[in-house]
Amino acid sequence: MVIHVYHPYRQPDGVNHCAAVNGHCSHLCLPAPQLGPAAPRVACACPTGLRLLPDNQMCVEDTVPETPKTNTGISSSGRDAGVVAGIVIAVITGVVVLAALIIVVMYRHYMHRNVTSMNFDNPVYRKTTENQFALEQNGYAPGSKLYPSTVGEEAQEPLNTPGTNEYV
Hints:
Helix content is about 20%, strand content about 10%. It is an alpha+beta fold. The strands form two sheets. The protein has a two-stranded antiparallel sheet with strand order 1-2. Keywords: EGF-like domain, Membrane, Receptor, Repeat, Transmembrane, Transmembrane helix. InterPro entries: Cueball_EGF_LRP_Nidogen.
């Protein structure tokens, strides 16, 4: 059944035959087009799960006998389809990652093979000291000068006072 809905200004003026007692319909009354003088003025309709009786006014429960479903051996479960799709996506992703890894390794090998390198020997790194010395644990060696551990007055002066940054 097709229902067309029009704006009230496009409707022709006429009498609403569904207004009085719902057009004698049990559920839904729809105005019918007037195609001729003998055409019905209303059409009754039923919601889902109900069917219209032959009198075209009353709706009753639709009692369609359910036929037992036969197992054809083909499972159409959405869960199985999701698992198969997940496996296919995982395999395709694995193949793409493996191909990318092989391409990167081959590219690096090819680039490394075509690069010529030169090695320079720096003799400075081979020098060693002739006289070995060891640091003593007592803090000073004989002949070294011992400095006081206190800081003088002028060293404690902050650097932002006038006269400290004259050469900067």
